[in-house]
Design goal:
Elements lengths: L8 E6 L4 H11 L7 E10 L4 E3 L2 E5 L2 H4 L5 H5 L4 E7 L15 E5 L2 E11 L2 H10 L10 H9 L6 H9 L4 E9 L3 E5 L8 E5 L9 E5 L3 H6 L2 E5 L4 E6 L2 E6 L13 E2 L1 H6 L5 E2 L2 E2 H15 L13 E4 L5 H13 L5 E2 L3 E3 L12 H11 E3 L1 H4 L3 E6 L6 H12 L4 E6 L21 H4 L4 H8 L3 E4 L2 H12 L4 E2 L1 H4 L12 H4 L2
Parallel strand pairs: 15-25, 18-19, 18-22, 22-23, 23-24
Antiparallel strand pairs: 1-5, 1-11, 2-3, 2-4, 2-5, 6-7, 7-8, 8-9, 9-13, 10-11, 10-12, 13-14, 16-17, 20-21
Length: 499
């Protein structure tokens, strides 16, 4: 699935002698979660004015490009604590520089910065209320709403103001706040988005370790941090000079709690396979998903005397699911072989980053190429993690056929995507989803793709595989089922949420 806009990656660190550089490495590891823009904010003391300041550097593009000047880390982004953000727009225009994060402001309690992964389902209601009070906005991002809620809180302490703001939010939000004294990490009561706590044993001239938080644990590996645990749904972690302490803001929002709803798409597609998300390694879960797919839709049988079918993945997010699919097919008595039939060019950005449908289709050939010697005269089973619009899948099928494949079969390691997401994923309009275009008819979808057969993992099969391998429950699968765990404002569309 190469046509779904991702949400964002966030990273924060406290008590590090090289905070900005470690945030940089953390963002680099989280690059897959957003490629539109990135930024870093640190907290330090202005030596001339002897007051706290928060230098910030943000820009459009990849981490390597935005932070290509090494002087930034020794002359500007100073301090022992900071936060970083990789962005793909889910709410707010992607070309508006005011929407780049982290956002940093100065208000009555000092300096405050925020990085947000997710989407507020009551954003329109909040913005309307602010507008009626005469509040001015600098951006079109729902993240700015959180800053206004904090600034307008009647509480006195910054932490209390943040908690006051959190009680008024609905939807998906994993957040990192940076104050003049603290790093604060928050996960919404439903736990839609992942957020993890890590630690590096003492690196400064103190007994206190370096704490860090990140959307995925692969960011910890990059800087040599140890994974401690997930931030729990509804939890507020406060990290300061006294250490790391925790609180829970759900006591203020019990009427709005609808149960745990962790995004199942983290396992299907978003997260890196080397990350631990929602308590389980993504690689392990994806292999289990592939095995379940083998039960729901194994490889086709071939005529006696023909070569065994070969299974190829659409790299990279479906690689491990394809491995699980092949191993389970063999256990079930279906002889097949895993092969590398598609080569991905890693120096081309993800196809969904291209603006507009035409550009996306034009990028397919620049991103993938076929291994003709592997595919020629073979029965080929293509495994992909999901299909959204289907334009990339259709182009790849044509390429595989042009390489000489005798038959092409498609297996999808997730159910049909039928509904929009209001919790941080930027799906196309429901009418653009291929499943809806063809009334969820597999035969019609297969005919349009140009395959000999197509089959999807069932919804029950997906949840069975995820829950069995993660030892967890309470997942949001609204994009597959249309059942939203948290109510969404009636009539809200992505365009309306973009203001």
């Amino acid at each position: 699935m190469k046509q779904l806009n991702e949400y964002c990656g966030i990273f924060g660190i406290f008590n590090s002698h090289d905070a900005a550089r470690q945030i940089y490495f953390g963002l680099h590891a989280l690059q897959h979660r957003g490629q539109e823009s990135c930024g870093i904010v640190t907290s330090t003391i202005d030596e001339n004015k002897q007051r706290p300041v928060m230098p910030v550097h943000r820009g459009a593009g990849l981490v390597l490009d935005v932070f290509d000047d090494s002087d930034l880390f020794v002359s500007k982004l100073l301090g022992t604590k900071g936060i970083g953000h990789n962005r793909y727009s889910t709410s707010g225009a992607s070309n508006n520089r005011a929407n780049f994060q982290p956002m940093a402001v100065s208000y009555r309690n000092g300096n405050l910065a925020i990085g947000h992964n997710g989407n507020l389902s009551n954003a329109r209601e909040l913005r309307r209320a602010f507008s009626e009070r005469g509040t001015l906005f600098q951006s079109t991002s729902d993240t700015e709403l959180i800053l206004h809620l904090v600034a307008q809180s009647r509480r006195h302490k910054t932490v209390d103001q943040i908690i006051d703001a959190l009680t008024q939010l609905e939807g998906a939000f994993s957040l990192v706040f940076l104050t003049d004294k603290e790093l604060i990490a928050v996960r919404d009561p439903n736990g839609f988005r992942p957020l993890a706590l890590g630690v590096i044993e003492s690196t400064l001239d103190s007994d206190q370790p370096t704490y860090c938080v990140a959307s995925e644990t692969c960011a910890f590996d990059m800087i040599g941090a140890k994974f401690v645990r997930d931030v729990e749904p509804g939890e507020v972690l406060i990290i300061d000079d006294q250490g790391c302490r925790t609180g829970n803001f759900t006591n203020y929002t019990l009427p709005r709690r609808f149960g745990t709803s962790q995004c199942v798409f983290e396992y299907v597609y978003f997260s890196r396979p080397d990350s631990k998300v929602f308590g389980a390694m993504v690689d392990k879960v994806r292999r289990k998903i592939g095995k379940q797919l083998a039960h729901d839709a194994p490889v086709p049988t071939v005529r006696k005397g023909d070569k065994k079918p070969i299974v190829i993945s659409v790299p990279d997010s479906s690689n491990t699911a394809a491995l699980g699919f092949v191993s389970e097919c063999r256990k079930l008595g279906y002889d097949c072989k895993y092969e590398i039939g598609l080569i991905r060019n890693h120096y081309v950005g993800r196809t969904f980053i291209a603006p507009g449908q035409n550009s996306r289709e034009q990028k397919v050939r620049s991103k993938f190429n076929t291994v003709k010697g592997v595919l020629k005269d073979r029965v080929v089973v293509m495994v992909d993690d999901s299909i959204v619009r289907g334009t990339t899948a259709q182009a790849l099928v044509r390429m595989v056929r042009a390489a000489g494949a005798r038959e092409v079969h498609f297996r999808v390691a997730s159910p049909m995507v039928i509904s929009p997401c209001f919790y941080g994923m930027d799906f196309p309009d429901p009418n653009e989803l291929i499943a809806n275009k063809y009334q969820q008819n597999e035969q019609a979808i297969g005919d349009w793709l140009g395959v000999d057969s197509i089959a999807y993992l069932s919804h029950d099969g997906l949840l069975t595989a995820v829950e069995a391998s993660s030892k967890s429950s309470g997942f949001c699968s609204a994009c597959f089922s249309g059942n939203y765990p948290v109510p969404v404002e009636a009539g809200v569309t992505k365009e309306e949420n973009d203001w």
